[in-house]
Design a protein that fits this description.
The protein folds into four domains: 2-291, no CATH class; 306-457, Trefoil (Acidic Fibroblast Growth Factor, subunit A); 474-555, Sandwich (Immunoglobulin-like), CATH 2.60.40.10; 564-687, Sandwich (Jelly Rolls). Helices cover 0% and strands 49% of the residues. It is built from no helices and 66 strands. The strands form 16 sheets. Strands 36-30-45-31-37-38-39-40 form an eight-stranded antiparallel beta sheet, with no helix packed on it. Strands 56, 57, 58, 59, 61, 62, 64 and 65 form an eight-stranded antiparallel beta sheet that branches. Strand 33 (328-333) and strand 34 form a beta hairpin.
Amino acid sequence: MKKLMIFAATILATLASCTNDSLDELNNELTTTITVDVNYDADQTRTYLDGNTIKWAETGEQLNVIYYADDNSSSRRQSATHTDYTLTEDGRARFTADFSLTDGASSYTLGAYYPYVYKYTTSSISLTLPQEQTPTAESYDPKTDILVSKEPAVVSGTPEKVELTFARMVAFAQMTLKGIEAGEVIEKVVFSSPAKPAGAVEFKVHEAATVENAKWYNNYEDITISRENWVATGEDVVWFTTVPTVLSDSEFTVSVTTNKSTYTKTVDLAGKTLEFQRGNVAKFAVSGLTKAEKPKAYKLLTDLSQLNAGDQVIFSTKKVESSSAKLLSTTKDGNALKFTESVTVTAALEILPEGLPADAALLTVEAGDKAGTFAFKDANSGYLTGTYDDEAWASALTFVAEKELGSSWYVSLNSSSAVTAYAYYNDSTYRYLNNYYGSKFNFAGSTSTYYYYIYYIDGEGSGNEGGSDEPVVTPLATPAPTATVEGNTVTVSWAAIAGAKNYTVTYGYISQTVETTSATISDLEPGTYTFNVVANPADESVNSASEAGVVTATVEAQQGAEPQTVTIAFPIEGAVSGNSVGTIYEGDIKISSTGSWRTDKTDGRDCIYIGRTTSNELRIEALNGKVITKVTLTPPVGYLIDLKWKEYDGYTSGTYSESWTGECKSRIVFTAAGSSHSNIGAIEVEYR
């Protein structure tokens, strides 16, 4: 494999506002050394605006290069530029990309786009402009930028220098909101219009006039914008990206949610035009927003110190954004309590009280009869209680009118906010409140593997210890973690937090608690990981745990890693002559076949049989980020293999000879070539 150097010196991205406030041009072009103009800004990871100039960030940039040899456009391949590139003094960055040569090729045709996204189909590329956007105060969200080469490049011989001109495909908006109460924290801004400003663009990088022939699809009406620590000033600039769209004789609506209020304004564009032009910035202001008090919502309980007497709570089956969460109801199903109909958990991990099912258990928190316990009372049904019938040996979850021993619940949360709650049904024996097999809540002798979560609205109470006042407890400062990646190992580090005893680092469903200010996670598969770091208090009477500090890190597939091999030789235990083969191996590589077994001890033919006129196939798939590099099939002595292959990365195909070699991230399928039966006695797969 040759390492292609691509030089990006002329990406044309002229930005002119709708008020003729022009932005500087950024020019980038592709050659055999990719060089992209970049300014140093370690806080950003992709393209961004600096005043009126579009710039490239110091790290994190990648293009996807699509290419094919000669005129065989059906054999397209793709290569991502490497993330380690060099910045030059004149503001460029020099990238490299691995480029696979084709034996005997006389020319190559290349095109490219940004940002890098691996595509299974490369004849036509579709990139979606996200509805959820997180810009900065001065620039658009870098994840929403789309750059496309305007024309394909055809290079004779081995590519040493390739020149492409890029065009920016999206439109930018710089909206100023006037009248948000200064000091309120803006949680989100929603821009919506019947013209559907969010959607996707489809283009073909190997056809002439790529940009002119691109197709935009206006699919969605809403774009939601959010930022961290967004404190309103009364005149707030909101950056976002749209599909190229003309709002003429139409309308748009702006909705703002803060920590205290909601603001809305629908702008009538009758006789007016607001145009979002490709590559341009539309600058406009919105004033006169209508203010309303923000309705209270049930928010996810993440720290037990947040739960106090007087709070309103519901028990839910989900903690992630979902429209299928269900709640504890007041309706019985035998000895258990049913779930309600589904409700929505929002992206902010809240459940809105409007429209909650009529049978939802809406519980008020009180102090339980035993010290350190909670009681949960539904206004109509009574106290949530676990009981036990000694004669029938049966547990029951129900509501009772008066508080009792079974109504006093000991509650704890794990690091993922999942709830464990138990109550005594006599002075020495207790049972758990369970989310029973994802269908109902019950009172059981052990905890269930089905988690549930508490959502709460702050009440006017004063604590859970029999109504006594609780001391003021403040959360620790939030850690600000950073991550470094070496191979398949990530080290997460952060500064010490005053008052912290230790720190819990979580990624996915895995967590570890350390007393130092770093944690090392090894043997990670390729992919992007999100790490959460929580500081735990040394004195819980003074501090509660911090909010989670978040950092992401990407583990790349290890280029040049030592290849690994899977070897399967037949016979194989359990194979029955004439039966379908099915899956015979699965790990980093999956091997399966719809062919049949031939098990013949007389002539030693133990093999997979694929007839010459059948549609049966042998399928070899790469899993867990692995790449197949070689497949060798061996027939039993005296037999042969007559197969053709199809590689689903680049949709290339051919006739099998002694082996298949290449690079495939998805799957290779072998089928009958047509002239002879095939007998496969051994399979060897090399991968990295």
